[in-house]
Each structure stands twice: as C-alpha cells, then as structure tokens.
C-alpha cells in the first residue's frame, strides 16, 4: 500500500486523520491470522468523517483487502469515495449513533460467532434476512438502513457486531463497528485471542 503522498496536500486535516486511522487498522491486521477472517467478497475498512453524509465523506481501501502469498494485502490505496457496502453501513450507523465512524466486514462462521459470544465482552446482534421486506431487498441502500435499524437497542446504540447467515446471493457476514482505529483494533485483538489456536 502506498502512502497516498500525491493526494495528501489536497486533503483536509480530518481526512488525513481518517486515512491514517485506516492505515493503523490495516497494519494491525496484516498477519496470517487475519486471513481466517476475510470473506469471499473480501474485506474493507471504512472510515467516515465526523459529519459524513455521502460515500465521498468515507474513506476505504480501493479494491478491498484480499489474500496474497498467505497474507492480507490491500488491492489499492486508501481513498475517499471508493468504499461501497461498508460506506453505506457506516453512513447509516451514523444516522443513529454519530460516535460510530469505522466499520469492517469479516467472514462469518457459526463457530466464530459462538466463540465471540462466549469468550469476549463484545455485543453481537443477529439480523435475520428472511424478515427483510421485499421492497427493501430491491434497494441496496435500503438494505443497509434496514439492517442497522433492526439491530439498534432501546438506547439507540449500535452493537459491536451485526451478523447474519446470508440469503440467496448474499454471503453470510460479520460487520464490526467502532468509534476510531483504537476501538476497532482492540475489538479485533479480542477476536484474534480466541482464534489463535484454530
């Protein structure tokens, strides 16, 4: 991953901070262990500006994170406006809880969810896609809004993890939410601790 040096003079201080936080998360996950958490659709890290309203206000890794030579590898640079699903997730989450600025998508397995539930203090909520209204299924942004709304607790808080078992054409997925890079890294560290011997 390059350091985006040609772009940096054009970016605001806040934009640079978001990019640096995504880089911090990326540097933490570039281990063989993280390969176990990369889904078929690949992983991305979305980081939003505090007052983000559109995907142009959200940075991500261009081309997502894949696996090369047995290690996680960014396909491109960190840029604003390149994330899609993760950008929609974080934008929708911010409508309900503006402290949420980062989201990552991770591979789902029943065993992993059970271990996270039993061995960490992370809060998980399952979304059952079969309950999704037909009119929502046809619009992707509506799907993200529905997914977030279904998972908010009575205090309006977004859980650490929203997961689902997938549906026709939709891969099962774990989505990890956090306030900043420190928050995300600490949550991933907890997951690493329980999959270390797998």
List the helices and strands and how they pair.
Layout: H1 13-29, H2 32-35, E1 45-48, E2 58-61, E3 65-68, E4 71-74, E5 78-80, H3 85-96, E6 102-107, H4 110-119, E7 124-126, H5 134-137, H6 140-151, E8 161-164, E9 173-178, H7 181-195
Parallel strand pairs: 7-8
Antiparallel strand pairs: 1-2, 1-6, 2-5, 3-4, 6-9, 8-9
Provide an overview of this structure.
- With 198 residues, the protein is α+β, with helices and mostly antiparallel strands.
- It has one domain (8-195): L-fuculose-1-phosphate Aldolase (3-Layer(aba) Sandwich).
- The chain has seven helices and nine strands, in the order H-H-E-E-E-E-E-H-E-H-E-H-H-E-E-H.
- It has helices at 13-29, 32-35, 85-96, 110-119, 134-137, 140-151, 181-195; strands spanning 45-48, 58-61, 65-68, 71-74, 78-80, 102-107, 124-126, 161-164, 173-178.
- The strands form two sheets. It has a seven-stranded mixed β-sheet with strand order 5-2-1-6-9-8-7, with helices on both faces.
- The mean pLDDT is 88.
Keywords for this entry:
single chain; alpha+beta; L-fuculose-1-phosphate Aldolase; about 35% helix; about 200 residues
String of helices and strands: HHEEEEEHEHEHHEEH
Q: Calculate the terminal CA-CA distance, rounded to whole Å.
A: 28 Å
* Number of E strands: 9
Share of residues in strands: 15-25%
Flag low-confidence runs: none
CATH superfamily: Class II aldolase/adducin N-terminal domain
- Gyration radius (Cα, Å) is 16 Å
Q: Give a quick account of the main beta sheet: strands, pairing sense, barrel closure.
A: 7 strands, mixed
Please identify the structural class as seen in this structure. alpha+beta
- What gross morphology would you assign? globular
Strand sequence of the main sheet, in spatial order?
5-2-1-6-9-8-7
Q: What is the CATH class designation?
A: Alpha Beta
Q: Overall mean pLDDT score?
A: 88
The helical percent reads 25-40%
Number of domains: 1
What CATH architecture label applies? Answer: 3-Layer(aba) Sandwich
Q: What is the name of the CATH topology?
A: L-fuculose-1-phosphate Aldolase
Number of helices: 7
